[in-house]
Amino acid sequence: MEKVKQKNNINVSKYVLLVFTIAVGIVFAVLQPTFISFGNLTNVVSSTVVLCIASIGLSLVMITGEIDFACGSELAAAACMSVVLYKKGIPYVLVLVIVLLFCAAVGAVNGFLHTRIGIPGFIATMGTSFVLDGFSKWFTGGKRVTISTGGNTFSRLGQYRIGGVIPISIVVLLLVVVAMLIYTEGMTNGRKLYAVGSNDSACKYIGIDARKEKMKAFIISAVLCGLAGIINASQLNMANPYMGETTLVNLLTMLMLGATFYRIGEFNVPGTIVGALLVNIINNGMVLVGAETWQQFVLQGAIMLGAVTLITILRARVSKKG
Amino acid sequence: MMADAAPLLSIKEITKKFTGITAVDHVSFDIGNNEIHALIGENGAGKSTLCKMLTGEYNIDEGHIEINGEEMHFKEPADSMKVGISMVYQERNLVGYMTAAQNVFLGSEPMKGIVVDQKEIQKKAEKLQEYLGVNIPLDVPVEKLGAGEQQLVEIMRANSTTPQILILDEPTASLGEGEIGPFLNFVKKMTKDLDLSVIYITHKLEEIFAIADKVTVMADGKKTLTANISEITQEECVKAMIRGDKIKTFDIPKKDYKELEKKKVIEVNELTYGGKEHDVQFYVCKGEAVGFYGLVGSGRTETMEIISGIRPADKKEFMFDGETVTGGDSFKMIQKGIILTPELRRDGIFPSLNLVENVCTLFVKKFATAIGMIKKKEGVDFTLEVLKKNGTKYTSRNQLISELSGGNMQKIIIGRSIEVENLKLITMDEPTAGMDLGAKSEIYLKIRNLTDNLEKGVIFISSELEELLKVCDRMYVFYEGNIVKELKREEFDKEVILGYALGGAVNG
Q: Domain locations in chain B?
């Protein structure tokens, strides 16, 4: 009897974040009708693209119980590399391939340091983040690098709109979202990933190699952060070695919010997506209703704290049963 | 016991309700001065909940308790400690790298200005040791101590506030066979010397009859019996604990060993691990349950974890199903048909995942397409079947496994393991630990079903000799990493086995 009740509580609260996100959207729409104009909605989504792609990547690592501290550095390094390589005259497609392969290698190094050498993930990725920051400063000369000519292939990914309406970046985001949702929720990979996160030491008893799953997570995280960086550079026509500095903090907000959704108290990809959307709706909506910057900060902070409070309470409730 | 004066502790009709269920239902009994009062009952009978109400960890919903005739209302454990109630929990709460002395005074360290006075700690700990009559090294990290010594550290800590009533929750659960006797003697002596009263929670009837003055039995949250130990038999206790039909019985068919030996599933000679060669000569045949007995740390778990590909070894080589195996991780071994269910239940479950996910993580390949897409429906159907076959009690397949009781978790862990395709050898490491009699008998039955009807090989690792004697066809005794004795069922002899387990090859 008791358990039935518990379960129902959790099931209802499973989707609260989505309901809340929609509610916030409605509030903004009422306050400022232009919020739901098609143009603004694509703005909301396309401004989400960079952080949303990176946050999905980071989610994979966080699901396994580790953290990729280097995600901001990966983003910045990828952005800088893409600008510098493109300026050297390398075709853009090739630039994409080189940069993403580089990021995969960075992820592999992170994974290797953690799973094979045994360094805690936080420290290993912190180390690689310094190295990456150094690299970025080296090949940009420590300052911002820009692409001057407009209408080139470089800015397509971030700025071109298909038929003048739908930004390519949103299409890319949708592809990443669909692919990663299938990966984590529909495939054996995801099942193993969540298993590793839930109980690392139980994995060996049922034949799951936790190290391999963590390795994959680190690689995918670095690649997605790299992709986010490339898109960001393309949106801005420029890159600088410092553009990833606040990335991790922003991503964590989204992930924390996401952990209140779908898999209560656990980081998960569907939750992260909703979380990313909510953060951007709030940011965009606040701008539209004419809020000041400080108010945005206060609101974002309050929502983050609210989310973490909720997770803590829900987790406590789950573990009490255990 | 003491005559008419108000008893030391009087429990009056106390009740605890959790949403929907009544965990403790109008229970009353008294604890007298200087008595060891055993509290027994199956898992979930409400013993721990009751004691948590006594310490103030849970609020009492109805009824109350009296100490020396005075009504008490505790808001938190600190309140009950003030009037002299102290509890030693089943789970260890020690900080591994700290010494015994530091652990005892953790949180109530004597200070010298703003720093902790280590000398004073040591001195107070020594005094406490003398007071309790124990003797354990106080200056080494507790993680270096044995399970029995760690238990004593916990008891020292509980006694550091000089309680009148000490609650011990399953204190022998983690102790090896050789450690239990001395521990019981210690409890008895301590109770007498310090004029304490002890509430002793346990599953093990022998222990009650060895030390308790009185016993209270609980079943389904209600008290079913309180009696002086001298006026009651074991059978009466068991009857009060459970309905008789819950214990399942079974017969062990006679085995023709000559015939059996032709169908060896596994044959092992030696393994090298931890830089040492270990002589572990054993074999298991199809349709045979083989017991591994030994003290905690005698190498039973290590041996089987290496065979099952879970623990790395320096060198391993053994025959399995007609082929020589020298390597392979647990994934490969499971594919070959060797699986092990872990000693610690928490190593077998994924607490934040639901029942379907917990069952299907073992079968990621089976319920997926070639490219790795999960076949959800098949996985769900399979899970429901596993849950049903093993009599698991649950409310929804979508509930988290951590919401289930320990016994039901174990049913899932074992239930999914025996479904492994082409399973040939399953090792169950302490599968009945912490279970009540009814649940234990179900495990025994499952083992016999695996051997007698399904022709599987089973290795049953346990620290409870009685259950191995009851269930197994053959037994190996471990001592300091080596197998020192093999016995067939007709040779089973408790004393001989204990002799080998405690003293190694001295006898032979």
A: 9-244, 257-507
Tell me the residues of B at the A interface, defined by beta carbons under 8 Å apart: 18-21, 310, 329-335, 340-342, 346-353, 357, 360-362, 364-365, 368, 372-374, 394-396, 398-400, 402-403
In a domain, A1, yes or no: no
Structure-block tokens of residue A17: 């974040």
* B452-485 burial code (b ≥16 CB/10 A, e <16): beeebbbbbbbbebebbbbbbbbbbbbbebbbbb
**A156 part of a folded domain:** yes
Please tell me the distance from the alpha carbon of residue B361 to that of residue B350, in angstroms, as a whole number: 9
Cβ–Cβ under 8 Å, residues B229 and B215: yes
Per-residue pLDDT of chain B (508 residues; tens, 9 = 90+): 444 578 899 999 999 887 656 789 899 999 999 999 999 887 767 888 899 899 998 889 899 999 999 999 998 888 998 899 999 987 778 888 888 888 888 877 888 888 888 888 888 888 888 888 788 888 888 888 877 788 888 888 888 888 899 999 888 877 777 788 888 988 998 898 888 999 999 877 888 899 999 999 988 788 888 999 999 888 888 778 764 455 667 777 777 777 777 789 999 998 999 889 999 999 999 999 999 998 878 899 999 999 999 999 999 999 999 899 998 899 999 999 999 999 888 899 998 899 999 999 998 888 888 888 988 899 999 999 999 988 888 888 888 888 887 788 899 999 999 999 889 999 999 998 877 777 788 899 999 999 988 999 999 999 888 889 999 999 999 998 999 999 998 889 888 888 888 875 554 4
Torsional sign, CA A113, A118, A119, A122: positive
Domain B257-507 part of CATH 3.40.50.300: yes
Q: With an 8 Å Cβ cutoff, are A205 and B341 in contact?
A: yes
ipTM: 0.83
Is A260 inside a domain boundary?
A: yes
Question: For B9-244, CATH number?
Answer: 3.40.50.300
Q: Which domain holds residue A178?
A: 9-321
Residue contact B329–A209, C-beta within 8 A: yes
The count of structural domains within chain A is 1
Residue A281 lies in a domain: yes
Q: Which residue has the tokens 């069952």?
A: B359
The reply to whether residue B351 touches residue A4, judged by beta carbons under 8 angstroms, is: no
Is 0.80 surpassed by the pTM of this model? no
